[in-house]
Recover the amino acids of this structure.
């Protein structure tokens, strides 16, 4: 009888502790990947371009920037494409950026897709996929980006390194104007490429 | 200065009286005596009684011209003693009061090494040295005797003994030519035994004159309140007599004319500190012994009517009426629009009014801050201001109380915004990415609450409080009450107001 009463008391205490633990779960790191990442080879080699096979304009040299927001397992954000290692020149004929869709992070792999930026048309349903492995406490993401990442011949890998953490992520980082960029040749001499997302809302 | 060195009138027979009193103490049955019924003793249940000391009544209406009389001074009952007897008689009628007379205390100490015997020995020594004209030694013995006598209140219990001490002290000082000190000694004699008279012609003329002068000065300068030498000494006497109140009666003024009757009742205050306070006081013109006794009777009866007697004492410990507490509070909503519950922490302030035994009214306010949930479904932190009010049912004891509170609850959520759409978290202000319908914004909630708690007394009115509660909300600015069923835990300290 006493033993049963003790067990009941223990269960009540355990239930209370579980409740508190569940509530305290919000304290775990659910913002691990939030920030800005840029494609880059391992240091100390200089940044080298990657390639996204099967995507016109991105099959050559392309520098990719990811702006990610992670909320638990959900990941949203923007992917931007540049033609130079300074991440200032956009690639002509393609969208400047695309919104990520179906972003998920399972604690090890970040998986997302985005609408094919080339050509830059809103009605496109052609998706590009990515599966990036997280390492270094969220500072590095590495994996294939392409139309068929699960194919027999996986597309080339990209390696991304974090350049901005969640705390430094500003509103301008989150702006994406899904319009076609201009090539450097289209712009006049001395013209600087606009800041990423500038003027868009 | 020549003196007749023989026994002083008035001190004669004291030893014989003491022996008689001692014998009487053996013979007279105490109050524990049981009335016999048919020869069988019937036990009398003892009831708690309050001891009230009746100080010797004193008649200070001294006539200096009559201080010395022809023949042997009589020992008839003076007016002061009659007043004390009247006071004792009134007190004796009250079953819960034991009047304590000096004679009762006097009888209580009969041991061979009693202070009185020591003092009496010092008196005899002083007398012997006085007769041997060894005045300094006589004064030393007498002063030692006076100090010892005052320490054990022999001026109350055995005033004749103390009176003799002062008398011989005064005579010694006169012998030394220290008239002023003799004057004081004779005044002290009159303070202890104002009714004492001396045989005319027994003392030299100069001594009689000095004593008469002291009596005249006594009437003019000695206030009646100097009885026992002040309140502190009365307090000490009450402690000595194991009494909590004292009745003093005395007559003042010129004898037979404009004298007055004065009655004082002093008692130990029941307030913290327990100092002596004057509980009753009466004063009336002297118009005869019956009227004086009536004054005493009326004053003592009036005091008794309101005095705290054992049966009137509040034996039940008073319980607190108000409970004010401040707590640290933790709360979670069991129903939330987020995918995981989130923590809320803050503080609480509560007040309960114990309307009657077992029932209280309470009010409580909590201010809580929400913490980020696991998935970040809370767009931002927010404040909850929670107010509750209602009735409670409680069980109380010396250790504290257990209570069950029920009432209405109102929550104001300051800046609550939640969504499970990650786009709304990343672009909260972009309608293109985040439709307004994807964000829940409850602002207020109204419902009912229950709580179970315990107050544990720590020290005096300070207590430890712990309580757990839950609420259910029925009304909100959003139709489906997306935030509901808060469970809260609170712990802290409180203060009970009596």
């Amino acid at each position: 009888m006493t033993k049963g009463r003790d067990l009941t008391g223990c269960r009540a205490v355990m239930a209370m502790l579980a409740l508190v633990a569940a509530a305290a779960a919000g304290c775990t790191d659910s913002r691990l990947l939030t920030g800005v990442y840029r494609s880059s080879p391992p240091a100390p080699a200089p940044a080298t371009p990657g390639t996204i096979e099967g995507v016109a304009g991105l099959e050559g040299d392309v520098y990719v920037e990811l702006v990610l927001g992670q909320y638990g397992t959900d990941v949203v954000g923007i992917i931007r494409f540049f033609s130079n290692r300074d991440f200032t020149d956009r690639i002509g004929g393609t969208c400047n950026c695309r919104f990520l869709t179906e972003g998920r992070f399972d604690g090890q792999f970040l998986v997302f897709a985005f609408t094919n930026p080339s050509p830059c048309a809103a009605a496109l349903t052609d998706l590009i996929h990515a599966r990036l492995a997280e390492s270094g406490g969220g500072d590095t993401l590495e994996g294939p980006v392409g139309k068929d990442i699960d194919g027999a011949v996986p597309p080339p890998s990209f390696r991304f390194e974090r350049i901005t953490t969640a705390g430094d992520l500003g509103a301008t980082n989150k702006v994406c104007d899904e319009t076609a960029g201009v090539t450097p040749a289209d712009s006049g001499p001395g013209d600087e490429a606009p800041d990423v997302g500038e003027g868009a809302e | 200065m020549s003196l007749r060195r023989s026994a002083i009138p008035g001190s004669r027979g004291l030893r014989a009286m003491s022996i008689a009193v001692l014998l009487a103490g053996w013979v007279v049955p105490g109050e524990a005596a049981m009335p016999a019924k048919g020869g069988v003793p019937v036990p009398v249940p003892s009831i708690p009684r309050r001891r009230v000391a009746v100080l010797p009544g004193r008649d200070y209406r001294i006539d200096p011209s009559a201080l010395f009389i022809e023949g042997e001074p009589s020992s008839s009952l003076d007016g002061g003693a009659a007043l004390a007897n009247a006071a004792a008689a009134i007190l004796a009628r009250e079953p819960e009061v034991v009047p304590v007379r000096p004679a009762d205390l006097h009888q209580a100490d009969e041991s061979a090494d009693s202070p009185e015997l020591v003092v009496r020995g010092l008196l005899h020594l002083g007398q012997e040295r006085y007769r041997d004209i060894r005045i300094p030694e006589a004064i030393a013995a007498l002063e030692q005797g006076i100090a010892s006598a005052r320490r054990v209140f022999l001026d109350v219990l055995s005033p004749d003994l103390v009176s003799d001490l002062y008398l011989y002290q005064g005579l010694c000082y006169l012998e030394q030519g220290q008239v002023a000190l003799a004057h004081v000694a004779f005044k002290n004699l009159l303070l202890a035994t104002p009714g004492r008279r001396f045989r005319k012609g027994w003392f030299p003329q100069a001594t009689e004159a000095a004593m008469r002068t002291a009596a005249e000065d006594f009437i003019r300068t000695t206030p009646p309140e100097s009885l026992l030498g002040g309140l502190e000494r009365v307090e000490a006497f009450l402690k000595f007599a194991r009494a909590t109140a004292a009745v003093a009666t005395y007559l003042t003024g010129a004898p037979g004319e404009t004298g007055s009757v004065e009655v004082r009742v002093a008692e130990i205050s029941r307030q913290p500190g327990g100092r002596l306070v004057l509980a009753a006081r009466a004063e009336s013109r002297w118009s005869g012994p019956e009227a004086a006794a009536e004054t005493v009777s009326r004053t003592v009866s009036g005091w008794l009517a309101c005095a705290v007697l054992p049966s009137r004492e509040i034996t039940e410990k008073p319980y607190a009426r108000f409970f004010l507490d401040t707590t640290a509070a933790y709360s979670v909503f069991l129903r939330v629009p987020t995918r995981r519950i989130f923590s809320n922490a803050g503080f609480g302030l509560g007040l309960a009014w114990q309307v009657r035994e077992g029932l209280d009214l309470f009010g409580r306010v909590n201010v809580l801050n929400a913490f980020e949930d696991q998935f970040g479904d809370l767009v931002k932190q927010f404040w909850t201001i929670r107010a509750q009010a209602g009735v409670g049912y409680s069980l109380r004891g010396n250790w504290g109380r257990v209570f069950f509170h029920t009432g209405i609850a109102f929550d104001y959520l300051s800046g609550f915004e939640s969504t499970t759409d990650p786009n709304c978290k990343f672009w909260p202000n972009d309608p293109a990415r985040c439709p307004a319908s994807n964000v829940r914004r409850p602002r207020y909630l109204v419902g009912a609450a229950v709580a179970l708690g315990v107050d544990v007394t720590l020290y005096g009115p300070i207590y430890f409080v712990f309580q757990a509660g839950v609420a259910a909300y029925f009304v909100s600015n959003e139709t489906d009450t997306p935030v509901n069923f808060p469970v809260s835990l609170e712990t802290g300290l409180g203060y009970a107001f009596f």
Q: What stands out?
A: The first strand of chain A starts at residue 35 and ends at 39. Helices of chain A lie at 2-24. The CA atoms of residues 47 and 139 of chain A lie 16 Å apart.
